[in-house]
Amino acid sequence: MSNKEKGANAERELIHLFNNTDGWSAIRIAGSGSSKYPDPDILAGNAIRRIAIECKATREDKKYFSQEDLDQLRKFCQTFGAEAWLAIRLPRQPWYFIMPEDLAAAGESFVISKEILQRKGLQFEELTK
Amino acid sequence: MSNKEKGANAERELIHLFNNTDGWSAIRIAGSGSSKYPDPDILAGNAIRRIAIECKATREDKKYFSQEDLDQLRKFCQTFGAEAWLAIRLPRQPWYFIMPEDLAAAGESFVISKEILQRKGLQFEELTK
After folding, report:
1. pLDDT tens, B87-106?
2. How far is CA B127 from CA A15, B60, B87, in A?
3. In total, how many domains does chain B have?
4. ipTM for the complex?
């Protein structure tokens, strides 16, 4: 399976989680990351909240994000009126949701470790309750 | 060009219109119409409005929608908290935006003619002002 397919599968997993949760709806964004406009991977919402999600499943025990990744997500959220979240799944872990502000600077990029993710991240049920 | 490609091109045209308009942002929804969940073609928004759009360019001088098309759009909008709009472009016409309620019943489906579209539809600048 290509990285692109793996990414799409991870996104579909989250879409199912949201769409199977009462009052929530979610969509995958076409060509996210490849279009010239800033856009996240997923947009989820209920009657009162709108959540834009950059979504990453990884085999490592930490995940890096570039400044540009985070800027693009924030820019979209500001224009569109949505909350900015990163969804991260590390090996043998559930999906965790974390805000860009909770990432630690690591040189020119930003990193989230398993420990910080478990401490500051929300699990799906907490995010959507 | 396949119908699918034509549809994607029509959607991209609208995405550019929104993204080039101050304060607006828009995204194409991946796999819309083919996933098992109700979803529109495009979602556009600014800080206060969220607009879900089913988008059709046609060579005919009218356009039909099935009851199911409209139900799916309404259902998504209700859960997600968005306004429901149809974007229609007939030959040698600009894009017009119209609400599902403004379509006329035609047997088991619904239809919009050029005349009604011009009378009740909004042009892009009116929709987004």
Report:
1. 999 999 999 999 999 999 99
2. 29, 24, 11
3. 1
4. 0.78
